[in-house]
Amino acid sequence: MKSSTLGEQRKxxxxxxxxxxxxxxxxxxxxxxxxxxxxxxxxxxxxxNGISADRTFIGLGNWKTLIADTDFWQxxxxxxxxxxxxIIIQIPIGLMLATFIEFVAKRKAxxxxxxxxxxxxxxxxSVAIGFLFTYALATNGxxxxxxxxxxxxxxxxxxxxxxxxxxxxxxxxxWQFIPFYxxxxxxxxxxxxxxxxxAAVLDGATRGKYFWNIALPLLKPTLIxxxxxxxxxxxxxxxxxxxMTGGGPGNATELxxxxxxxxxxxxxxxxxxxxxxxxMFILITAVALTANKLLNxxxxx
Length: 301
Fold this sequence. Notes:
Strand order of the largest sheet: 1-2
Low-confidence stretches: none
Helix content: over 70%
Number of strands: 2
Order of helices and strands: HEEHHHHHHHHHHHH
Oligomer: single chain
Mean pLDDT: 89
């Protein structure tokens, strides 16, 4: 038998070491991600209340109902609206705040003050923000209604009006997550060498020209990654909507996640709730892959 060379022994030891370190990760991926996804699709084939041991296999019955369920597709449309508004509002404002800190608030003490104040909304839990704005926007005694009363107007019901409820919540979501994209853009700025800015200044470029012609193109990968994060997060959003409106009034703010929650844990129809969750998984994956492809095509030089 040939004795293994030193290079072969190193490759073998490296493979064993890699396997030892990757095994726990693989275990958690299987237990907490792959198995729940698979089990969700399995449960979607049953009529089951989620509690009793008895469940009835109905095949694709829940999926046929889901495809014809107009309320689910309306919820999906609401997710799309939140996704588009989030990308349009959160990322540009986050970039604007990061640019302000990068160009204007250069002094450490000043930048720390702005960073701390602007980042506070993201540090606050969604449940706390939901209750805070629910009271602030209350029809009786809320901030908007009170200010309206000062000028002789009546009570304003932003959350109880189907025409305004969704966009009111979208603005609150944007207020919470803009700081995240500010930090994301700041990280992008930190990857741009200071020599690039100094060279641009020596060539006579103003800060505006530097931003549009140099910094913004260099920040494209960061902005694209942020857009994909915003897209996926918007399509699976749940907590703030559930706390503030519960999907109401009517179905005006219903999202796929709140719709799934109602069937699974309020109506105890775990089979159909799993079908809704499976539909969410398919739609989110399809939209995310498509958007990733389109955004990266647009980002290619």
